[in-house]
Design brief:
The protein is of the alpha+beta class and about 375 residues long. It is built from eight helices and twelve strands. The protein has a four-stranded antiparallel beta sheet, with no helix packed on it. Strands 7-8-9-10 form a four-stranded antiparallel beta sheet, with no helix packed on it. The N terminus is likely disordered. The structure holds FE2/S2 (inorganic) cluster (FES).
């Protein structure tokens, strides 16, 4: 079987490793390669790589009106990508500094309601412009070449010719002389880079500061109100009934983690009341208040069966016993529903005596740190 190299461009060197460089290095010494121009090396490497160029469209004439117009279009789109990325950074960093603060509680029509959509909008527009700019750049400014390539063997020859190919790519892109695009690329790269690393700031800054995942709007003295905002007095409910209540704060009835069940126990249930440890004084007379958010996967629980003193979660059938501090007695939930300590204020309306003393809702990764 022949071992002669019959590839295009080969002068017939053996395709077994040569004494110094191996493979096609047998055909050309380093001195010969160093004496060739970049274009010659590029073409030579292409031939040795088995590349067949089928068609070449050199792109717009340098300095032509068509090229200038394309450069302006591409530069504008890249600059817009950078601008939108910087706007993302401004919104992200400026909140609470020179822009209104963003709180975890979303209020209708307020800054907090627009914070995340604005971040998404600016990031989306920026990435869209990056994509559009790259497509325009490729289509309108780069030479178009249709070629078929086989493989390379990683010899010194390949490294030299591959380097020439890369340099040729940079040269053919015209970026070295198209300053507008280079500057807009720098703007885009800086903005998009900042935009992408900016969210990491949340990891550097203590993400648990203020324990936003572990607190709700309930606090000492905050009244328990119905969905329509009316406060509740002891005696408003029938024994054995349940009512969903919210904190009397702006937007309180839209805060998913604050929804609470106020339950008036029947006298027989009061006799059987066995609060959890540390919760002995959380009830007020025959009233108890528990979080409405299931501790399994966060569904709202409120199917209350007063005969069995159980609250059923409709999602996966967890059951909680309201006379035992809402401990789970059936189903996948493993944690009791958090209990809200309640009392009455000077006017006789129900108020919270503090926030929940444990995290509301299902488990999340850093619960132990809260
Ligand atoms: S969410 Fe309540 S049981 Fe699964």
């Amino acid at each position: 079987m022949s071992t002669r190299d019959m590839r295009p461009g080969s002068t017939g060197g053996a395709d077994v490793p040569g004494p110094l460089y191996g493979g096609p290095d047998d055909d050309y010494t380093p001195e010969q390669l160093a004496a060739m121009s970049r274009q010659d090396l590029d073409r030579l490497g292409a031939r040795y790589d088995g590349v067949e160029i089928l068609h070449v469209d050199p792109g717009p004439e340098p300095g032509s009106i068509m090229e200038k117009r394309a450069v302006r279009q591409v530069g504008t789109v890249f600059a817009l990508a950078g601008l939108f990325a910087f706007l993302f950074v401004v919104v992200y960093v400026g909140s609470g500094w020179f822009l209104p603060d963003w709180h975890w509680d979303v209020t209708e029509g307020g800054w907090s309601a627009f914070f995340t959509p604005m971040l998404g909008l600016f990031m989306g527009l920026s990435l869209l412009c990056v994509g559009v700019g790259l497509v325009l750049f490729t289509k309108k400014l780069l030479p178009h070449e249709t070629a078929v390539q086989d493989k390379h063997d990683g010899s010194h020859f390949d490294r030299v010719t591959a380097g020439a190919t890369l340099v040729g790519g940079w040269h053919n892109s015209g970026l070295a002389r198209r300053k507008l695009i280079t500057r807009s690329l720098l703007l885009m790269g800086g903005g998009v880079g900042l935009m992408l690393i900016m969210p990491l700031g949340g990891l550097i800054k203590n993400p648990n500061k203020g324990n936003p995942l572990g607190t709700t709007s309930w606090a000492e003295g905050v009244r328990l109100v119905r969905d329509n905002g009316t406060p509740i007095r002891p005696g408003d409910q029938e024994p054995g009934s349940l009512e969903t209540v919210f904190p009397a704060v702006p937007g309180g009835n839209r805060q998913a983690d604050a929804a609470t069940m106020l339950i008036r126990l029947r006298p027989s249930q009061v006799d059987n009341l066995r609060p959890r440890e540390g919760h002995a004084d959380f009830a007020y007379g025959e009233y108890v208040a528990y979080s409405k958010i299931c501790t399994h996967a966060g569904c709202p629980v409120s199917l209350y069966e007063q005969e069995t003193s159980r609250i059923l979660c409709p999602c996966h059938q967890s059951m909680f016993d309201v006379t035992q501090g809402a401990k789970p007695v059936f189903g996948p939930a493993t944690r009791a529903l958090p209990q809200l300590p309640i009392g009455v204020d000077d006017e006789g309306f129900f108020v919270a005596r503090s926030d929940y003393i444990e995290a509301v809702g299902p488990t999340y990764w850093n619960r132990e740190r809260i």
